[in-house]
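Chain X:
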Amino acid sequence: MRSYGIYKVKEMYQPFIIGRERLLYDLLKEGGQQNESMPEVHYLCDRLKKETIDDAIITNLGKSFTSIECQNGQYKLTHPVKGSIFISLSAYSLSVYCDGSRMLDLDLFVALSGAHDRFFAIMDGHGEWGWLKPVKYTELRTREATVLL
């Protein structure tokens, strides 16, 4: 079973974090649910809105799953071939457990990145991390320059 912590980085800090993803990973990798109380997480990450996550999971991801269970910010999605995804929503993160094919992970990442482009995931115990949607650095620099003008 693979487990992930997924956070939504605040838009104003995304340009700063690009190129420094390893530092963010080092900050988040050990904490798990304890990260919720860290002031650094409150500073760098947006609170997750249940409606946005519901829409991303149920509308975007639910199409390809045969069974969807949703209760109190927890989701279980099952596919007969790929396996199951268990998702738990908290104030600043999603805790995700994928049991089955790696296609489950990809399906989840595509669904969430369709909702926002600032989701950052860490894979527990494997030293893997990254943006769910590839970041176009030139777009970020252009936005910064426009704001400064």
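Chain Y:
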Amino acid sequence: MKNILLLSIISIYSTAYSQTNCEALKKENETLQFANKTLISDKESLKKVLDINKPITEIEKENSSFIITKVAGNKKEKSIAISFLIEAKDENKKMTVEDVSIVDIEGNEYKIDLYKSSKPYPDLVLNVPLKMTFSFKDIQDEPLFIKLFKFKTTSQPERNTFEKAKSNLEFRDLKVFWN
């Protein structure tokens, strides 16, 4: 009789305990699901951040790196903006960017819109990329590709402003993303 009574007390106790434990497990499961969703959204945000400066094309001249990151067309304003990074690889320098133009796939040449573009006199710090954007207006027929994006640079090291290095840069066949 004692054994039956003992077994029934144990089974009642384990049933009651398992039901309360089940509620605790449900709460813990909900917490873990929320944390998992947060981690997934954080991971997607990091992927987007990494895509911001993803290079389309890159050229290195005179110990400076030129990386095009975005070529965007605006249908409403009939303009194209080209964003790129410039980075000094050897020392701090002062740079001048001039004669900036693009040629579309139909052979139309467009000059820079200085009012909507970055200043063409960047001061570069060693191994720190500087973002620049050049804008071009009055674009005809929304071209899908820029056949040629060209400009000239003159760079001077900060240690010796009399020493100059000149470069002609050309980027070819850039896809334009219109919005």
